[in-house]
Records
---
Amino acid sequence: MKQLSVPHLLGIKNLKREDLELIYETADHFKEVINRPIKKVPSLRDITIANLFFENSTRTKLSFELAEKRLSADVINFSASQSSVKKGETLIDTVNNILAMKVDMVVMRHPNVGAAEFLSQHVEARIINAGDGTHEHPTQAILDTYSIREKLGSVTGKNVVIIGDVLHSRVALSNIYALKLLGAKVKVCGPPSLIPKHITSLGIEVEYNLEKALQWCDVANILRVQHERMDVKYFPSTREYTQLYGVNMHLLSKLGKEIVVMHPGPINRGVEITSDVADSGHSIILNQVENGVATRMAVVYLLAQQIKRE
Ligand code: NCD
């Protein structure tokens, strides 16, 4: 059986194209499973997984938990707000205490860049990065590219624009790596203050004009404005942001072609995207959520196969 080339999923940067293709093939199978009347398979009956969330999350946490349960893994959940982290315990101590309870795999979201990689170097468990600060969010990029592949048949050769707060977005960076690996053409679009200075060194282009970006693309992936990560003002007002970079139906109807609209959620309705666009036939936002479960089942399953063989 084919295996992933990595022992942990820390970021898309560490993956090869074949890894992504193996994950998609495995996810195709699990997507069929979760649409059956009995949505559960016994594959991971002997595996225990801890979901450690040191930062708020709704869909990523629920999606991982559901994916793990559908594979029949034993699951424990931990949120920083209700734990001894508040009493000053270090990350390694917290995790080693959890591992002493014989946990095989850790899914972690953490506000600090590099937290998942750090953990992988210091504890004996498979680690999945569910978002480390503004750095990477690999499973989001996997489910996004999987959803493009499903909708358009392939990612290779497609024009994908990532719109909005690229500077603070781990979704943007992981998507750029995944899209490039799969041979898509990528542009980012947003106010200059929210586009990282050297982003073109990743082999992508910057387009500051939203209309031109939409005209160029097959797929528009719209990002949330991450107010919680902004220590200073990056644009004069939300109203101005929406006027220049908000995606609305008027803009889409002027294009004279169909484009696919995506958003990782949570959506700020009326800020980066209007409700009529989010809920329209252009949008595959809810397909992304559905595919999140199937693709996370694939990632967890493939890493667990490596443990079973040890
Ligand atoms: C993203 C995240 O947390 O990075 N959301 C998610 O995983 N569903 C994007 C965001 O918070 O805007």
Note: Strands lie at 48-53, 74-79, 105-110, 126-132, 159-163, 185-189, 205-206, 219-222, 260-262.
---
Amino acid sequence: MIHFNPESRTFNLILQSSVYAMQVDNKDRLVHVVWGPRPADGNELLSGRIRPFPSDHASFEFQTRRDELLTFGDTSVHEVTLKASFATLPDPLPDSDAPHLPIRDVRLRYISHEVVTDAEPGLAPAHGLPTVNREPRETLRIKLADPVQPLTVSLCYRLTPAQDIIERWLELENTGETPIEIEQLFFATLHLPNGTTELTSVSGAWAQEFQTQRERLPVGRRVIEHRSVQTGHLANPFFLLNRPGQAWEEHGTVYFGALAYSGSWQLSFEQLPGTDVRVHGGYHPFDFGLTLTAGARHKTPAFVYGVCDEGWGGASRRLHTFTRERILPVPQNALAERPILYNSWEATYFGITEQNQIELARKAAAIGVELFCLDDGWFGGRRFEVAGLGDWTVSPDVFPNGLEPLIAEVNRLGMAFGLWVEPEMVNPDSDLYRAHPDWVLHFPGRPRTEARCQLILDFGRAEVVETIFNALDSLLAQYNIAFIKWDMNRSASEPGSVVGKAIWQAHVAGVYGIIDRLRAKYPHLTIESCSGGGGRIDLGILGRTDQVWTSDNTDALDRVRIQEGFSLAYPARVMEAWVTHEKNHQTGRFHELGTRFDVAMRGALGIGASLNALDEAELKEYAAYIAFYKRIRYIVQGGDLYRLERLEEAEASTILVVLPDGSEAVYSTVVHSHKLGQFRRLVPLRGLIPSATYEVLDRFEKVRLTATGYELMVQGIPGDEDGRSGHSRTLHIKRVD
Ligand code: DGJ
């Protein structure tokens, strides 16, 4: 609910268990009042009588006024949300003042507000596919303007009360005659209560994405960021924040946020002297530049944020439900749950032939796979990574009869067909590059640094975006393709584009635009976002894809840690997880099949092993696991996640995924490393109905235990006291009374 009191000029945004309040002060500035959990029966409104700051500012260093939108101007000495410069004044200027131009000072004052239904942030999906939950949502739009300069800025707040989530974005408009240069632009700044200084975020690298880190914010700034045209491996744009020692996995007040954007981004956490905490999130200030020409508007993407009283677990569950219900598209004719995928990359790499893919497809279908994806190497001159990217036509050297025979066989076997593409890239050794060497990001006269032998296409050029759209469109028109794995295997360097600095946003808009157009034209199509593993995972890309390739690292024990960090923000439904070889190709370590399945079954299960190299007995084991996963996947992909034991603090990872009504659950434990000779404790479960009776079944549907929800939640499930590294188990828990 959005409430405005015209006398006190206070806004109350009331969500299920939290409140966000602002006020227009006596100088018409919009200032933050409070954000936090609210008592269950506290339906009263905040009056705005209690002022969180004593005065405008006690001194420059101790600025305490919490402007909802902090601008460069006035006395700003700390980080700002928006910095703009104006060529001159709208009125004639005395000659003596000319050397002081441009004017870099913005002060925004309240003009008006409105409540609208279903407003959209910038770069919202345009494919037209529905989401699971289509209930309309209220958006508060508060219009502010500079009293002198022709700049208006609307602050937008879209409410999803059930998950205590607000999506926030800015709408800028140049109402004047001369261009305005926007030099810095975050989507929003959040004001957190003093002392909210314990930050949880993830860092990473290729094959080591989503490594959880927890730290105390220093006085000053700490940034997490990525400077490229994709989200990046080094960090991911989400955070959890709480008072040190006052929140835990299932307890305490936790503030959380994430950016719905896949480009160069920054989250900047700022602790002022006096422990005031601010979070600024949006476009990375690095090489940022946006010109608002006369009459032009710019809408930023959304900064998604919320608060809850149920610890880090409660924050994750809210983000998961929000993503499943409000962000992910629902494609036509696709399975309600993510299908079992077979991907042939680790089986054949660049050595693909029609015959070996058909053999793999037959084996995959026999073990229960539902979607067969042909990976890199099927097109142009792409026999290795050195050539072919950009030439999106089927290679007659690999598929002399085209893709039809393979697709026909895959479909005959009852599976859908998927195809790998890397549309933003070009190898210099390609027909596309030979024809258009100017179509890549580069600065004239400067080197073009190749990574993985490839360059990035300049999506600032409309003709490039059109060419790539047409290439993908032809493939989809010609072949029965149900799934695309959209890959992206390098970071940006030498970002020279025909659109100048605007390339950082133009690239993202180009990628989103192509996907949206394809999805609108092929509503049955599903897409996986991949960027050398988990390099493009965020709430922006999830609005137009169905799943993500979590990491190129498929080693079960490495993967369980990656998945734990991933689960802080993103739901299991989108987390593609393959079972690969006994001797892992990335780490060289051996893991039992059970461990590999138990880890992969925590997400959207896929298979990436060389099925042609497995014997009948092994294939039978694969089939049994896949059949088990199919029985539990609606719980894994749609339930509420409880991290019962986290690798971050224990030697094992144990999770429970419970259906929202508490009737069924999946329990999964994986021991990572444990001191031999010590027994592990039992792990109490959560989220069940205390008075209900449950049966605990193993993967052969054998009842291992019958107990009440109360017993399971107070004591736990025996059988995992084994300290062996790699010990793992997945159990299905069913209410029986
Ligand atoms: C990187 C991806 O993460 C892999 O799964 C595979 O598709 C390769 N690219 C292919 O080049």
Note: The two ends are 39 Å apart (CA to CA).
---
Amino acid sequence: MAKTIDHWIDGAAFAGTSGNLVDVTDPATGEVTAQLALASPAEVDMAVGAATAAFGRWRDTSLTKRTQVMFAFRELLNDRKDELAAIITSEHGKVLSDALGEVSRGQEVVEFACGMPHLLKGAFTENASTGIDVHSVRQPLGPVAVISPFNFPAMVPMWFFPIAIAAGNTVVLKPSEKVPSAALWMAELWKEAGLPDGVFNVLNGDKVAVDGLLTHPDIASVSFVGSTPIARYVYETGTTHGKRVQALGGAKNHMLVLPDADLDLAADQAINAGFGSAGERCMAISAVVAVGDIADDLVTKIAERADKLRTGDGRRGCDMGPLVTAQSRDRVTGYIDAGESAGAKLVVDGRSVTPDADGSGFFVGPTLFDNVTVQMSIYTDEIFGPVLSVLRVDTYEEGVEIINSNPYGNGTAIFTNDGGAARRFGNEVQVGMIGINVPVPVPMAYFSFGGWKSSLFGDAHAHGTEGVKFFTHGKVVTSRWLDPSHGGINLGFPQNQ
Ligand code: NAD
């Protein structure tokens, strides 16, 4: 019988009692590896209760001690990241090197959060008014919720919780029910690093758990990452219940290739960004916009490379793994059918792939469409699979118009050797993260990650200084130490003297 995966509440595994179990599968084999107990409203209360009870003491723990725990967590993670990568591959399906890559990008946020004493430093002004000093501080919010998607079981939670914890908050993480084990592994690591019980909790669940967190009076903020409709819902519900919310949504990322670009480089990068993680990345390139008469050459070069990719079990050194579930696979093949019916030219067909894997995993091979138009569903919808669409335009302006008309604004890239064109693109494209000859421009931990338009609801991007601001309240203290010469009554509005 498959094992059951628990919650992690108040520093220990807690076997769920809801009786509401869902299967967790190994996408490369199709095998059910575990059953996950989805949280009931009472279990949401337990997890939030643990985070609430732990908050006062953790908030008042000195920065030095909090930072020591952060460094210990970083060291353990660095030493044992192979274990975490293997867990990610077994539930998500991405190839091991890719899983290791996501752990490393998450680790960078832990490293950034190790600098929290500096990041929390306020300002001090002496003698702002005669005998009056002013200083500012930033203080933690309280228990915060992090709700994450399936596609980055370690990195996306790590965009948030290292900063939240280092700043003195306590956390309830609700991972995706498709990939729960990475969060539990990280919870055990926190314990080993010396984090007090209750500061980091993992609540497994679905909409019931999400709604419980969004409406719970003790949850101060919600950091959500997932598809756009749910992100919008989370933002609206969370803010209605008085919470600070950052909700990162879906994407449709374009790669604009100008006629002067190095086409081999562009084709390599289209492959990496289109088919890495089987296209299940919010920063994946799904639309290549070819400008001018390079389109035929570019399509040929991408197709040659796509044909050579090895699809299969991520533990076997393959280039590309499976989709996360059978439903995801069927959704993606449905889009390929729709693209064909709509008249796009199917250059490489991933439906007929023979994967290097045992069992019956959820595979679709790399797929390439040419002559795609902006009306087709393979262009308008976020497919979230290994399907790359090539759109042909005559001019740079037409390409930018397509990108700026798209409702999403997460990432985009331009491929060119013309510095002026690249600079102009960076200036006028309405997207949050831009690559210049870089296809997946995920910002470093000390910058902030976030898209525009339907790719993000709320004001704060993830990590970097915006993350520190999100997880703290600002406070300004104006002080005067008694000096009899400044006494007296004055009902006027305070002014500088
Ligand atoms: P999803 O929206 O299905 O799920 C995200 C989270 O919401 C999960 O924890 C899930 O349990 C929960 N959820 C699902 N349905 C819900 C409902 N009806 N009510 C409340 N909560 C619900 O997303 P996913 O399929 O796990 O992840 C893929 C999506 O995430 C893609 O759209 C991708 O672009 C997006 N994503 C965006 C970013 C970004 O930075 N913008 C990063 C990674 C993933």
Note: The domain at 253-436 is CATH 3.40.309.10 (Aldehyde Dehydrogenase; Chain A, domain 2).
